[in-house]
Structure formats: structure tokens, C-alpha cells
Amino acid sequence: MSLRGLGTEEIFERAVAGERRALGRVLTFIERAGEDADIITELSHPMGGQAHVVGITGAPGAGKSTLTGQLTRLLPDLGLRPAVLAVDPSSPLTGGAILGDRIRMDDMAGDDVFIRSVATRGHAGGLALSIPGGVRAFDAVGYDPVIIETVGVGQVEVDVVGAADTTVVVVNPGWGDAVQANKAGLMEVADIFVINKADRPGAADSRRDLDLMLDLSHVTGQERSSGYRPPIIMTTATEGTGADELWDAIHAHRGHLASTGELDSRREARHHYEITHRLEQLVSAGIVTALAEDDGAMLVADVAAKRISPSQAARTLAKRLLR
Ligand SMILES: Nc1nc2c(ncn2[C@@H]2O[C@H](COP(=O)(O)OP(=O)(O)O)[C@@H](O)[C@H]2O)c(=O)[nH]1
Ligand SMILES: [Mg+2]
Fold first, then answer.
1. Could you tell me if the CB of 190 is within 6 A of ligand 1?
2. 76 C-alpha to center of ligand 1: Å?
3. Is the CB of 61 inside a 6 Å radius of any atom of ligand 1?
4. Prior bond of 145 cis (ω within 30°)
5. Could you say which ligand is closest to the alpha carbon of residue 171?
6. Is the pTM of this model over 0.85?
7. CB burial readout 171-186, b (16+ within 10 A) else e
8. Residue 70 contacts by C-beta under 8 Å, 6 or more apart in sequence?
9. pLDDT digits (tens, 9 = 90+) for 229-275
10. Checking DSSP bridges between strand 192-196 and strand 114-119, what pairing results, if any?
11. Residues with Cβ within 8 Å of residue 250, at least 6 apart in sequence
């Protein structure tokens, strides 16, 4: 059925009713970050909070997409409806290649699975807002779990994926990978480690190295406080080996979160994070406006003429902004 002529609310309702094309449109609204996105946020927020949000991160080529593909193949058999938000720096704005090549994509186009590729370039609202928005939409529509796949580079990506309920860090055989992950701040956010490409030489060594790293105090803060130690799962994603074990570990982590009350605190952190970014956006927009207005321009002239200092000008504008 066509969506033409429908309002944002109606499109959202159709998405909730299970219309895939409507959900696709809802996700586009969120990415464009306009008025429609705000309406979707209002509608979807009260309905969310059900889905288990799983972040999967790691270097490009580590096998995140292949592994995610295996999970989406596995989960419907367990009665689950997984959705994937793949944050893909190589993807064009139109969301071209999803999870690698077309064959794999078609393979997974079942009704119980929804996969969305989000390009990082030309992103109006910024990933810091569109990822939580996309997760909320999937959640409201009844997908569970919601998997976020991101390359673990850049602060926003680490923040977003670290704010998932469960964060999976994927590395490959070879010590260098674990060191890179550590540098990128991924060790601290990992709830589960995956050594993918376990079919390659050195997988057992990597496991031992990772274990040693986990023994180091700076990454075991979490363990000390709650008795949880991130497990290390070996996978060969191209063959599907280990995907079921990974899901078991994700599921077990969810149980741990629920029993310790950490699920609530993680979600609180997520809200905190999103509110912060929304606030930053509002304030930035306010700054642009304030400076463009007449008295803003006058303050700039005053600074140029040395009647006031730049900090005085900024304080004056801040007072007006926060009024
Ligand atoms: N040998 C081997 N290759 C793999 C494995 N998993 C993924 N690959 C290959 O690694 C490449 C990158 O995989 P991809 O899932 O796109 O990685 P991503 O960038 O982390 O999403 C692809 O050519 C995959 O076929 C694995 O377990 N073993
Ligand atoms: Mg990928």
C-alpha cells in the first residue's frame, strides 16, 4: 500500500501495525532530524523500553556484519524479531550496501528481521541522536533485540555503542587487534568479547592475551563491583560457528543486568546521553540565532572596537540565551 498522502502519525501507526515500508519511512524521518523526527520521538518514546539493545563494535573488517547476519538468522528460530541498525561509514546516503553484499542481504529479508543501514556522511541530525531515535522506533514497533553495528572509532560511536544494554567487542586473531581496541576505549565498554575469524592461526593466543588484559585492574572495575567478567567467545562468522554461543552470552548478560539493577542505570545513562546531545543541539542553534540578530552583531562590533572583551560579549549573549 502506498504511503502517499499520509501524515507522520499515520505512517507511524502503520509501522506499528507491521508495515515494513512505513517503518522504513519512520527511520528516514529520524535520520533527517526535522519536525517529523520530533513527532516520531513523541509517539515512540512511551512505547519503548522493551527491547534488549545490543551494540556490536570493532575495527572495519573484523566481521561484525557477518556475525550480525548470523545472529539475525539464528534469532527468529528462537521466536525473536531482531532489528539491526548498521552504522556504515562506507554506505552512501541512500543506504546502498547493507551488511556487505546483496546476496547476504536478500538472504535475511525475512519478515521477522529488519535491517537498516545508516550512513555517517551527510547526516543531518548527527549519529548521537539518530541512533537512539532508530533504536526507539524499532523498540516501539516490537523488534527485540535491537542490534547496533558500529565501527568502534570516534567518540560518538564508542559512546553510542557503550550505552547499549550489552556491548560486544569483536576482534580478530593477533595481539594488535586487542591493543587497538584498548586504545579506542573499547575494552572498558565491552560486556562480551568475540574473537572472530577463529579459523585463522593465532586465535588461541589472542584468547590468552585478552584474558590477561582482563586481568589488568583497569578493565576489571566492572568485575570487581558486580562479579561479572566479560566472557570471550570464539566465532567463525563465515561458517556461523559460535553465533549461538554468542547469543547465549548476550542473553546471560541481560540476566545479569536485570538481577543487579544495572539495566536501569544503563538506560538512565542512555537518556542522560541523549538529553545532553539534544540540549547541545538546541543551544548551538540558539547561539547561531543570537549572533545573527541585531544586538548580537552589535556586540561583535563592540568587541572589534575594544569597548568590551570577547568573554564579556559571550557572557552577555549567554544570559540572553538562558533566559
Ligand atoms: N576467514 C574468515 N573470514 C571472515 C570471518 N568473518 C568474516 N570474515 C570476512 O571478513 C570480511 C569482513 O567481514 P564484515 O562482516 O564485512 O566485517 P565488518 O566490517 O566488521 O562488518 C569479509 O570478507 C568476511 O567474509 C571469519 O570468521 N573467518
Ligand atoms: Mg560491517
1. no
2. 22
3. yes
4. yes
5. 1
6. yes
7. bbbbeebbebbbebeb
8. 235, 237, 240, 243
9. 899 999 999 999 999 999 999 999 999 999 999 999 999 988 998 89
10. unpaired
11. 52, 54, 145, 166, 168, 192
Nearby residues of 248 by Cβ (< 8 Å), 6 or more positions away: none
Indicate whether residue 100 lines ligand 1 (CB < 6 A): yes
Please, are residues 117 and 88 in contact by the beta-carbon 8 Å criterion? Answer: yes
Q: Which three cell numbers stand for residue 106?
A: 536478500
Whether ligand 1 lies within 6 angstroms of the CB of 69 is answered as no
Cα separation values, 38 from 29, 34, 228, Å = 9, 7, 38
The C-alpha cell of 42 is what? Answer: 513523541
Strands (E), the chain: 53-58, 83-88, 114-119, 146-151, 166-171, 192-196, 232-235
31-63 as b/e: b if 16+ CB within 10 A: bebeebbebbbebbeeebeebbbbbbbbbeebb
Q: Judge whether 242 and 198 are in contact, CB under 8 Å.
A: yes
pLDDT digits (tens, 9 = 90+) for 174-187: 867 777 767 767 77
Sign of the dihedral defined by the CA atoms of residues 87, 90, 91, 92, in that order: positive
- How many Cβ atoms from other residues are within 10 Å of residue 135's Cβ? 27
C-alpha to C-alpha distance for 272 and 86, rounded to whole angstroms? 23
User: Is the Cβ–Cβ distance between 88 and 119 less than 8 Å?
Assistant: yes
- Ligand 1 nearest atom to the CA of residue 100, by list position: 16
Ligand 1 and 117: CB distance under 6 A: no
CB atoms < 10 A from the CB of 236, how many?
A: 20
